[in-house]
Amino acid sequence: MIDIKALRKEPEKFKELLSRRDRAYADMVDELLAVDSERRKLITEAEELKARRNKLSREIGKLFKDGKREEALNLKAEVESISERLVEIEKELSEVEKKFENLILSIPNPPHPSVPVGEDEEDNVVIRYWGEKPKFDFEPAPHWEIAERLNLLDFKRATKLAGSRFVLYKKWGAKLERALINFMLDLHTTEHGYEEIIPPLLVNRKTMTGTGQLPKFEEDLYKIEGEDLYLIPTAEVPLTNIHAGEILPEAELPKYYTAYTPCFRKEAGAHGRDVRGIMRLHQFNKVELVKIVHPENSYEELERLVREAEKVLQLLGLHYRVVELCTGDLGFSAAKTYDIEVWIPSQNRYREISSCSNCEDFQSRRMKLRFRDREGKTRYPHTLNGSGLAVGRTVIAILEQYQQEDGSVKVPEVLEPYLKVRHLRS
Question: From CA 214, how far away is CA 145, in angstroms rounded?
Fold first, then answer.
């Protein structure tokens, strides 16, 4: 949530930054400021009327005591009129507050000034590459063909059980998925300093709103009918909200949390995209990284977060690149984002496997998460999140980059202690 006080002081700055995302957001800022002005006028009027009523009430008592009944009754009529107006203001203010809340929750995070301006993913900027593209003496197969040949995945039975965009992992496929989850968690907890959490997979509307999934992305979420519960689209939601509504001592910052969870998304806007394989599913596994940090250190922490996610791919020996997202491709809650894109040989292109973002104080304001600094002042920390990594997409990259001419898949050396084999075979 944007800082309304800062917006009032520098509206043009906010409008300019938000227009880098989409010009329509500048109009939303004007609308928000108009509603905010109306809201403040009503609040001021109500406060003045209450003060007047209290003053008159004291005078009425004194007049009655002094035997000035007629004057007292006149003032009493004025008090009744004030009370009637206050009831009207309360109704008006309730409607204005709803408009205000809806608007302020619907405006995205202004991008950091350093974010490149662009319209979509075509305008993202490549920062660096790691490793080399694998070379094959044969035509590389797509991951779903490899998986079916090695009996790792079963799409038909998953469709029977749940419908399209679901998968059933089996045998070495299930073991590979589990090995990757354990490997990622071990790395982040032992080398990168994260505390492992097993969070609820169901959270309430307030929690979803805190990280920005609601109200904007409701159509992408799975809601439990008749209950205030949603299946999480990412562990970012429960992890970032762990301290919602709390005031932390400054000495407790930074906080680093990691979790493996299944993630659930309707993929409402993905019709016709990645219909084969496991690139885009309604249920998928992910290891998430979340940081709650001091505002002065958040951009250093973002660079470190990217390096921590990259380390997973480096140890697995998977070729990838890092790109900085442009303003038009930036997520709703993010001020700045780097995507890590792994090479997929069968598609001859790079695909996102991790998205690492600094949300600054946008989320902490929404969830009322604060810290008390050394001077005793309460401030909003910055929150960061990133995939460390998307497990299914890591499986895709391993199957495709490590596929062998004899049909087997070489196991990355770092996974051998988890799988106890060097090759996956049928």
Answer: 38
